[in-house]
Amino acid sequence: MYYNFSKDALKKILELEVSEKMDIDYKFADSSESFVFGENCQIGIDCYCDNCKESKVFLIRQADMTNIMSDFGAILKDSYSKAAKKGKDYNQTFKSYFNKYLGNFELTLTCGKCNSRLFFFYVVHDGVLEKINTFPSLMQGLKEKYRRYTKLNNDRFNYYLELITGAYLYYNSNSGIGSYCYLRRCIENYVNDYILDNYSEEEAKQFIKLSFPEKIKKIKAFIENEVLEFLKPLYNILSKGIHELDEETCKKSFELLKETIEYILDDKLAKIEKEKKRLMLKKQLEEKSNELK
User: Fold this and answer.
1) 73, 72, 68, 71: which is closest to 35 by C-alpha?
2) Is the pLDDT of residue 9 over 60?
3) Residues 6+ apart with CB under 8 A from 265
């Protein structure tokens, strides 16, 4: 079945966050860009799968698109056709027809591995499309994914809660600058923890007051270079975002910055697990040695 619905438009719709809006114009329904939904359709997104417990590609299948998008697609096609007959002021004419449409629809996406479903809900009004909800909530998947960082929590800082809060601001509140604040707190406290754990109380009090680049110098003996080289540029980008950049610019870099922080925190987790195993093996060897005396 043919839809006068552009492939590029559908990709943009899938990328919308909850409460984010986008204008709809005639290019959404441009027949020169329309395509057929079939078995080889690869329109989808990368998303955390709560069933697989990892990031997977969720795709829109032909049957789901046919059943759910038919009404919205028909309105697009009808508005496009009427505008084409006018032959002038194309986009303005399209909007005069389409802006009268008021309705809602959902997109169903399916995990390519386990077939679990993800539902995106939208409303259309005054020529604007707005994403209103996701089910199940993407935050639930992130909570499970980031639960491992509770092992890094201490009396000074809650890595799990701070990272989840930053993700919530980005995914649910469409906030780039706000999310940067929590990501930067994670990095600041990551560095502070190394200072507090490896220096005397008196030294730590002095080092904590230093600038971030100076702090990095104080902990370089305790972390690998491949992690150390991330800290300064990561902190600089986050600080510039908080103090100088606009929301849209910040949002474009959020995933990169979040993934870099995950890499840094995972490195620390690996060290903790390695030390835990070392102590366990040491204890077991000592016990076995005492048994054989």
Assistant:
1) 73
2) yes
3) 149, 152, 159, 163, 186, 190
